[in-house]
# Entry
Amino acid sequence: MRARIRAAFAKSFLGRFWGRRSLQERLALIFVPAAIVAAIVTVLIIVLAGPPFLDFLKANLPLVRFVVAATAIVLMTIPTAFVLIYLELKVIARMNLRVGPNRIGPWGIGMSLIHGFKVLSKEDFTPTGADITVFTLAPVVTYVASVMTLLVIPFAPGLIGQDLNIGLLYFFAMGGLTVLGLLMAGWSSFNKYSLLGGLRSAAQIVSYEIPLTLSVVGVILLAGTMSTNRIVLAQSGSFADWFVFKQPLAWLIFFIAATAEANRTPFDMTEADSEIVAGFATEYSGMRFGFFFFAEYVNVFIVSALATTLFFGGWTAPFRWPWSYNLNWFDPLSLGFLVWLAIVASVALFGTYFFAILARIFGGRAWGLWSSLGLGFVFMLVAVAGAVGLAAFIAFDWVQGLFWFMAKTYVFVVTFVWMRATLPRVRVDQLMGFAWKWLLPASLLNIFVTATAVVLLNR
Amino acid sequence: MSFVPGLGIAKGMALTLRRFFAPKATIQYPETAPDVAVRFRGRLQLLYDELGNLKCETCFQCAQACPVECIDMGGFDTRGRFHVHWGAAEQYAERREESALRRSGRPVPDQAYTHFDPIDTADVDGILEKYDWDQKEMLAILESIQRAYGYLPVAALKRVSQVSGAPYALIYGTATYYRHLRFEKPGHVVAVCLCAACLMAGASRVARTLAKELGAEMGRVPAPGGLALEQVPAHISGAPSPLVTLDGKPHAVGHSGVAAWARALAGGNVA
Amino acid sequence: MPARQHVPRQPNARGKAQAAQPQPQPQPRFASAEDVSPARFASADDVSSARFASADDPGIMLDRQIGGLFEPIPPYPPQTEREAEFYSLGDGEMFLNVGPHHPATHGVLRLVLKLSGEQIVGVDPVLGYLHRGVEKICENSDYYHVIDQVDPLEYLSSLFQEWAAVLSFEKLMDVKVPRRAEYIRVLSGELLRVASHTLFMGFLALDLGGLTPILYGFIERDEIVEMLAALTGARMLFNYFRIGGVNGDLNHEFMSRLGDWMTRAGKQTEAQAGLLNENEIFVRRMRGVGVLDRATALRFGVTGGNLRASGVPFDLRRSHPYSVYPELDFNIPTRDEGDSLARYLIRVDEVRESIKIIDQCLHNMPDGPVMAPLPRLLRPRPGRAWGACEGPRGMLGVYAISDGSDQPFRFRIHDPSFLNLEVVPTLLPGNLLADTMAIVSSLDPVMGGIDK
# Structure
């Protein structure tokens, strides 16, 4: 039936016309009308539905804010994952007395991008006998569950996705959903290695959830609230106000349990690639595996971010900023468009030229005309970004907060990577024995001591 | 086992942290050449002696001795005469026989070799002198020998090889390449002249008739003792057109009588 | 629908390709699982590809069912009683094929594990994936070629293979090796022992999850192997020992590299040991795991560090001395526990002992020729000889039978890893899946030697 329709089409005028077109003509015939139609439809939408939509947005500003914040957070995870992949490769390499990737891009920073492209371009297959729906959804569940937890992390004084009253509870609830994704992956792959990996991961994450949450209870008792924003504010007095000094045992338990939650060595039994090949991710390839990969690195970031928030003061600076400098005297809008254009153009041109000359002087004959200009342009951009950042740092407190938050988080990220480079894996039964026999009683002890101290000190 | 739990882990992590800042052991290969030992025999290069000459003589001993037969080589011999090649043949079957046979040290027979009868080599020496013993004129030499003897006797080829220094393989290869050179004594040679005058007189039709009746192709190597059909190299002056020669002598035959004469020839009668 | 086999086009005797012949489908011969009892396969003629007629009785061997496709492990009926018993699943058990393609099996080793959850109930190791027919090749090579062929057996420590072969040949031909050659042999052998043990530590850590020690091991090994390249001409398959000596004398480059290395001898190995020896995680993974007691070890013929870790102070360099080892002063580290940690620690100690031996060799190196005068074509008298040396993994032996011609008649290689791996079915059951790697890696198998 389909064949007959196809034959009839081929003989008709339209069929013959289409067949005689070249590839470019065909593409133009499709896309130009589509573009025109899209433009008309867009204009119509803007004209007809624009004002009511804007009124709707103005009426629901919190919704707008939420949507923008959520999008920004989701978009932020991607470069974060790239940076973390790069860090992992380089830091582990350096600890192994070798230089990591250094060929792609300067110092190898192109490696992450190449990993991303590679993962996108691989063949996407499902194994025979796998449950395709569950198989496809598993990485999505893992990734989404990880990213949702970022909503309650305070990045800076004004930058938090949603300041929930039960922020920490929400965090742990969402974090627990990742185990669902891993189980789905392990079960649906129809592969014994994946099954073993999935079951191990379920056992591990479930057993380490409890010490994790219980160790955080001490912090909640001290701060009096579950809202992450207010926990950070409770530590904002000075360096000594950080909860790590008041709750050292909780910090230790939290760190160990967080390593297990993020499936990092020494607790990476779930993907122990010398025993069960890749654990739950054995049958995954291409972008599906990329999702798991991303989810793992984002998990590391999230766990570091939580450690910073709960124990190390979040976005507060470790020392009091000695002076406050405000740029209120400078009103950027007063200068006018033309002046701004002149400033930007002159900075761009002179900066490029200046750095090009420097490159030529120091780099020698290796830098011809265009390559030195290109390098100059890049350096100019970096310098301008640095200058703008510095000005923002001085002027805006949210920039400062973001900077300190990211610095502390990345210290913990590097610690995780450092542990991965150094330590071998813990066996499954030893892992769970450790959680149930040592961490759980220790965290209960911590709660008891903290509660007693709070009651006594308040009296 | 230390008394403080976690101390071993801490010491390990301190070690890796120290190593993070230590100089790295990586050699950036294309920019830095690694420090390879002088005696390293993994270098794929041919050696030169102190005068700048290549030491390898393409003697194939290494290729023959290699236990995995992985050496494939070719080159010019030391006199620069010809290019030789030794290596894996394209097909596995061919490779097995040839390689084992050659490796055994026994001579590999040449299937087309026939034992040669001694002949008078004075003509050969004369021809060689005329061409100045030049190997590059091999085709002309061979054609002269064929004209002198009617075919290429093996003894003549051996004589050429011995006197001029050209290897027999070269001569043999040249001789087998061209279709008009033959190694067997032909029965009779019928030749047709295809110069412009004879062609205008109808020589091509004569040639076609002869080919059909004699059952031979122009220029083909005949069966031993069979009739050979050839082209006369140059028109013999004074001979009528179309010129047909039998064993080199002009034979007067017209258009009408060609077919009958050819049939008679083919039947064995020589007119 | 059963799968058809694809037969590629093969040239026949005349070189012409034949059309692909479809294989005949195997005939169903058995109606139920009872027919596949071991008694039926008493003779080898009964082995054929059998198919079960019904999907309802899994019985033996059927491991996985994908829409009608049976996938048994192994794809032939059990041929011995042990196999029949092994390949029948109990309640809640499953087969896991830690297959030849695996990141951590030290080469192509296949272990069919019968697991009950994570606990190992039985092991069936399958060898032979790296079999290259070395012994047969050696029967067709003359005595110089044999040394070259026998290198890739234990490729990580190939000088010891050559040493064993050369020892047996020297006994056959009654050749006396000059003293300088002996010292050079000991020197290069001990250097290679350090390199091999360093790699062992690295691989063990890698199998347990630590990424760093192996790279330190390779840095150390790279230095040693570059040294040996300056001496022998190659980095891995050295082809250096000869019957009656060694191929070339020491040269300046080797001595300078060696001296340079001796100033920081074993530094990376010590770094590895520092990362691992006291690491609580590592120790807890290895202590008490895979305990090989003395009687079992002796019964299976385990040699080398594995035997010494079980309390038997057997080292060929002291018990059946060869070469110049009687003149050298070194200890044989022995431990009593017999678990994986002991096997690991012994090798760390052996590295230190080897460095001591290298030091003594350097100081006592005599002068003289490095090769005994021998004819070009070697034709020993008909006879048999056994030559064995102590390799990093155990006793490497060669039993050579000569029939008076220039090729050995029979060249039997006794490989230590082969016997070391025999204890795996005894050690593994009862442990967890994660201990597989700890145990197998601590035995230090090299598949090249096992499969020959």
